[in-house]
Every structure is written in structure tokens, then in C-alpha cells.
Automatic annotation (TrEMBL):
Superkingdom, taxonomy of origin: Bacteria
Protein name, per record: Zn-dependent hydrolase
UniProt keyword annotations, A-Z: Hydrolase
A molecular function GO annotation: hydrolase activity
Cited InterPro entries: Amidase_Cbmase (IPR010158), Bact_exopeptidase_dim_dom (IPR036264), Peptidase_M20 (IPR002933), Peptidase_M20_dimer (IPR011650)
SUPFAM superfamilies, per database record: Bacterial exopeptidase dimerisation domain (SSF55031), Zn-dependent exopeptidases (SSF53187)
Species assigned in the record: Ruegeria sediminis
Length: 416
């Protein structure tokens, strides 16, 4: 297949300016972003992206989950498109680059091809996947999961946020529900550029991470029910303290993850304690345990040990306990040919690189089930992400987008 010339690069200044302009929509309180999915800010960010895509000559498609598809035609009308993209939604206290770099890096491919007058055999489609973060509506990667057949659309539409608002209703409210059947599109390949969200690339002084695998993920929501009681007048032997039980369970979570070091991890990031009053012993605790590993058997072992240990703690304390699997996916091995395209592009451009396993979930992890897929990663400062202090350099962004450009355009095949 024909690859772009070695000296070709994207416009790093234009990419950076686009990142900064998108960051003005849904600003956070500390320099980052709060552009949660299906909010008015999400709708505004989508509208800006659509304008940019149409200005670049793309036709915008929209499916019933709100996934956006900006298409640049190829020379062969029968050739399956090469897809590229990520997500525009953020955490409540998110950074300016998580997800957004992958979407706007894809747009920069289109702009650069237009600048250079390059045609490709395959169409190229830049994608914004809805609700990757899963913060407002669990689980994460919801719309790409529907696209890949992992969830039904009705189930996704029924997901509720903390205020009881349904995903389907909010999608309709902000005006970004399309008519296209979800998952009807067929892909030649899919590529996703993302910041690492970890410290490895920066610590090793590498420009690019060639992502070969993705960690599997398991989210188990645990509900422990005891009895609300006065903290001052309830004797210690008569307490049914759900908060204390949660603390003991979380110690076990840490212990279980450490037993599978160095690649397994575990913690609880989402915790609610009720009634959450200073002078009331917690009568209920609800928390989500997040286990991850690139080994499926390790994930299963951690899940099983959590249940056994947590049930023992609840029984010993005379409490009720319930478990619900609220999210997860198996470890991912990305397509060897797509990974090779990323690695070859990195070497052709002269960037330092290392193979890496993604510690976070990404839309590419679901799309890998229905199309050949690979990921490109660039460093982020101190490995910090899901935080308003998340930061990358303009050079890192440009290097990642350069590699993305070469891998995507090589796969889409330059027409001489």
C-alpha cells in the first residue's frame, strides 16, 4: 500500500489552536474542562466540531446514539472507510486533551490532506464517540459499546444520571440524536490517538507509545446496608456501621491488587455514604470497585476474591451486602497490521517509541471487536489525567498527530 512521503507533517500550530479553542467550551474551575456528555456544553462542542468538519469539506453523519462521523471521500467509492477518532466529552474536572486530542488529531489529518491535495483510495471518517467517559451515565464507552454490539440501544437509552435523567431523553434534548442505525457502518480499520494517562512515556523519554494491548476492566458496585444511628449515643457493640465495613473491604481491594503486581491495579473511585451526616453512623455505603489487568484470569480472580472477602466482612459485622457488575470489558489485543502501521510510521518519522499496554479503557477497545484497530499514545506531564491540571506539550501533540496521519493515510492508501 502506498504511504505518504516521509517529510509530510501535520500543522502542529493549527492543531494546538483547535485544542485551545475547544477548551473554551465548558471550562472547569481550575484550568481544565467540565464538558460532560449530553450537557449543553457537550452540544456546543459538537457544533464547533461539525463546523470545522464541514469547513474541511466533510459530510457529517449522525447515528441514534449521537456518534458523529465526518467523512472525506476516497477515490474508490466501493472501498471501506478508514475511521479515526476518540471523544469530546470530559470528566467533571477533566483536562483539555483526554479524548479531544484524538478527535481533533483526526480532523487535522483531513485538513492536512486538503492542504497538500492528497487523495486516498479509501474514504477517511473522523469520529466523535458519545459518552466515552461514563461519568454522568455509566458505563464508560457507552455509545461505542452499542456500536460494537456489547449493549443494546434500549438499555443505553435507559441509563440514568445522578438526577434520574435518562440518556435517551438527554440526547434528544440537546438535539444530537441522529436517525442512522447504530453499528450499521463497516470499517476498513480504526485508529485512535490518546494521551497516555500514565507516567511511562515521559519517564522513559519516549515520544510515542505504540499500543499493543488494552487492559481488561471490571467495575463492581458494592452496596453495604447497616443501620443509621446517633454517633454519640449508640454503644460500640450495638452499631451496624456500613462505613466501617466499606473501609475494611477497600483494604482487601488494595491487598488483592497488590497480590497480582506489577500489572494489576484496583481501587474504588466512586463512593457514596448515607446519610452522610456528621453525627450519624452510616447506614449505607455504595461504592464501585475498579479492577484492571491485561490478563483475563487475573481479573476473574480479583472479582471472586472481592466477593468472598466482602461477604465475610459483612457477615462478621451483621450487615447486608449486594454486588452488581456495572461495567467492564475483557483485555484487548490490537490488530497486528494496524499496530505495525503505527510502529512503521513512528520509525519512518524518526520519533522515539516503545510498545505499551493501555491502562485505561478507550473506544478503540470496543471497536477492536468489529474492525482492525490500533492506538497511538503521546506522553502527558507526570502521567496526570482526569484532572484539570492534565497537561501535554505542543510538540507531543504534533508528534502523536504526525504518527496518526501516516498510519491512517498509509492504511487508506495514497492515490498517485
Amino acid at each position: 500500500m502506498a504511504a505518504p512521503a516521509q517529510n509530510l507533517r501535520i500543522n502542529g500550530d493549527r492543531l494546538w489552536d483547535s485544542l485551545m479553542e475547544m477548551a473554551r467550551i465548558g471550562p472547569g474551575v481550575a484550568g481544565g474542562n467540565n464538558r460532560q456528555t449530553l450537557t449543553d456544553e457537550d452540544a456546543e462542542g459538537r457544533a464547533l466540531f461539525r463546523t470545522w468538519c464541514e469547513d474541511a469539506g466533510c459530510e457529517m453523519g449522525l447515528d441514534q446514539m449521537g456518534n458523529m462521523f465526518a467523512r472525506r471521500e476516497g477515490a474508490d467509492p466501493d472501498a471501506l472507510p478508514v475511521y479515526v477518532g476518540s471523544h469530546l466529552d470530559t470528566q467533571p474536572t477533566g483536562g483539555k486533551y483526554d479524548g479531544v486530542l484524538g478527535v481533533l488529531g483526526g480532523l487535522e489529518i483531513i485538513r492536512t490532506l486538503n492542504d497538500l491535495g492528497i487523495r486516498t483510495k479509501h474514504p477517511i471518517v473522523v469520529t466523535n464517540w458519545t459518552n466515552e467517559e461514563g461519568t454522568r451515565f455509566a458505563p464508560a464507552m457507552l455509545a461505542s459499546g452499542v456500536f460494537a454490539g456489547m449493549h443494546t440501544q434500549d438499555w443505553a437509552y435507559a441509563r440514568e444520571d445522578a438526577d434520574g435523567k435518562k440518556f435517551g431523553d438527554e440526547l434528544q434534548r440537546i438535539g444530537w440524536r441522529g436517525d442512522e442505525e447504530v453499528g450499521a457502518r463497516k470499517m476498513h480499520a480504526f485508529f485512535e490517538l490518546h494521551i497516555e494517562q500514565g507516567p511511562i512515556l515521559e519517564a522513559e523519554g519516549k515520544d510515542i507509545g505504540v499500543v499493543t494491548h488494552g487492559q481488561g476492566l471490571s467495575w463492581t458496585q458494592v452496596t453495604i446496608t447497616g443501620k443509621d444511628a446517633h454517633t454519640g449515643s449508640t454503644p460500640m457493640p450495638m452499631r451496624k456501621n456500613a462505613g466501617l465495613a466499606m473501609a475494611r473491604v477497600l483494604e482487601k481491594v488494595d491487598e488483592i491488587a497488590w497480590s497480582h503486581a506489577p500489572h494489576a491495579v484496583g481501587a474504588a473511585g466512586h463512593i457514596d455514604v448515607y446519610p452522610n451526616s456528621r453525627n450519624v453512623i452510616p447506614g449505607k455505603a455504595v461504592f464501585t470497585v475498579d479492577f484492571r489487568s491485561p490478563d483475563l484470569e487475573v481479573i476473574r480472580d480479583m472479582e471472586n476474591r472481592l466477593r468472598v472477602a466482602a461477604e465475610d466482612i459483612a457477615d462478621e459485622m451483621g450487615l447486608q451486602i449486594e454486588f452488581e457488575k456495572v461495567g467492564g470489558f475483557d483485555p484487548v489485543k490490537f490488530d497486528e497490521n494496524c499496530v505495525a502501521a503505527v510502529r512503521n510510521a513512528t520509525e519512518r518519522l524518526g520519533y522515539s517509541h516503545t510498545d505499551i499496554i493501555s491502562g485505561a479503557g478507550h473506544d478503540a477497545c470496543w471497536i477492536n471487536r468489529v474492525a482492525p484497530t490500533a492506538m497511538v499514545m503521546c506522553p502527558c506531564v507526570d502521567g496526570l489525567s482526569h484532572n484539570e491540571a492534565e497537561e501535554i506539550s505542543k510538540d507531543w501533540a504534533a508528534a502523536g498527530a504526525d504518527v496518526l496521519f501516516h498510519a491512517v493515510v498509509e492504511t487508506a492508501e495514497v492515490v498517485e
